[in-house]
């Protein structure tokens, strides 16, 4: 199972803009690096990252091998209603992981 | 007309060109970056401004370079940043990432960490809902490059 770290405020005022941070453990192997045997290590990266708030997409990112290992992404969102923010990562070798946080909007 | 026989000088120059070209075409170049930007932007005009590309000018380790892109935008339904695209000049590929945003984001700010294979220029392009493109670029000096070191 992939290791995921998510940072979001637990309670926010309605209409407030909050920062959401997500980090996932992943090698992001570029496919351009030679290994110990001199052959290129095959590419293994996360290609897509999406965030949804109660099922509505709020942020999407397409990554290339130039995103650092253990991809960290920070972005903002306006708190409209209480609910679950779900983060999903997909990539090479059928990689798929997700994490979520509950946010209470007052 | 008869084609003149190639002179020795022309032959040497030609063979040099053939040997040099494969190395030039390996990896992204400023031209490859321009082409990659054009792929995303199309024929639209890209204007400098409104975008702040926050990246350290001198990094010791190219494997994880923090980068923050901020775009001045009210982020309303009528006028918001639709996407932020980031490119580089000298990594094996010119593309770094694309992020799609909307009015729901409130602020057009995206931060992440990227790899840089060499000292080079990084370009961020923001696409607004009005179809405008704004950009910013930054030069980064990298002392330890990403991608090139051996795996231990």
How would you portray this structure in words?
The complex is a heterodimer of chains A (106) and B (152). Chain A is an all-beta fold and 106 residues long. Chain A has one domain (15-31, 42-105): Immunoglobulin-like (Sandwich). Chain A has strands at residues 4-7, 11-12, 17-24, 46-53, 56-63, 72-78, 83-91, 95-105. In chain A, the strands form 2 sheets. A 5-stranded mixed beta sheet of chain A has the order 2-8-7-4-5, with no helix packed on it. The termini of chain A are far apart. The model of chain A has no long low-confidence stretch (mean pLDDT 94). Chain B is an alpha+beta fold. Chain B has one domain (27-144): SoxY domain (Immunoglobulin-like), CATH 2.60.40. Chain B is built from 2 helices and 9 strands; from the N terminus they run ααβββββββββ. Chain B has helices spanning 8-25, 30-41; strands at residues 46-48, 51-54, 58-61, 65-71, 81-88, 95-100, 108-114, 120-128, 133-144. In chain B, strands 1, 3, 5, 6, 8 and 9 form a 6-stranded mixed beta sheet that branches. The longest helix of chain B is centred in the N-terminal third of the chain and has 18 residues, at 8-25. Strand 6 (72-78) of chain A pairs antiparallel with strand 7 of chain B.
Question: What would the principal axes of the Cα set say about the shape of chain A?
Answer: elongated
- Strand proportion of chain B, as a percent range, falls in 35-45%
CATH H level, superfamily name of chain A: Immunoglobulins
Largest sheet of chain A: 5 strands, mixed
The geometry of chain B reads as globular
CATH architecture of chain A: Sandwich
Sequence of secondary-structure elements of chain A: EEEEEEEE
Mean pLDDT of chain B: 84
- Label the structural class of chain B: alpha+beta
By DSSP (H or I, 4+ residues per run), the number of helices of chain A equals 0
CATH level 3 topology of chain A: Immunoglobulin-like
Judged by helices, strands and strand pairing, the structural class of chain A is: mainly beta
């Amino acid at each position: 199972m992939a290791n995921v770290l998510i940072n979001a405020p637990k309670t926010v005022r309605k209409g407030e803009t909050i920062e959401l941070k997500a980090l996932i453990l992943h090698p992001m192997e570029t496919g351009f690096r030679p290994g110990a045997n001199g052959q290129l290590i095959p590419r293994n990266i996360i290609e897509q990252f999406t965030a949804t708030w109660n099922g509505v997409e709020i942020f999407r990112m397409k990554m290339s091998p130039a995103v650092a290992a253990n991809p960290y992404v920070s972005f903002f969102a306006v708190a409209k209603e209480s609910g679950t923010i779900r983060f999903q990562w997909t990539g090479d070798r059928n990689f798929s992981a997700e994490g979520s946080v509950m946010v209470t909007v007052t | 007309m008869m084609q003149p026989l190639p002179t020795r000088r022309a032959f040497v120059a030609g063979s040099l060109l053939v040997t040099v070209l494969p190395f030039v075409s390996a990896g992204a170049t400023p031209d490859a970056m321009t082409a990659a930007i054009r792929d995303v932007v199309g024929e639209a005009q890209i204007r400098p401004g409104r975008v702040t590309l926050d990246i350290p000018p001198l990094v010791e380790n190219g494997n994880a370079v923090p980068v923050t892109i901020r775009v001045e935008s009210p982020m309303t339904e009528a006028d918001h940043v639709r996407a932020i695209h980031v490119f580089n000049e000298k990594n094996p590929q010119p593309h770094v990432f694309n992020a799609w945003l909307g009015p729901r984001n409130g602020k057009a700010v995206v931060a992440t960490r990227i790899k840089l294979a060499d000292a080079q220029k990084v370009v961020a392009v923001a696409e607004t809902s009005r179809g405008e493109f704004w950009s910013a670029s930054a030069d980064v000096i990298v002392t330890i490059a990403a991608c090139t070191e051996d795996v231990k």
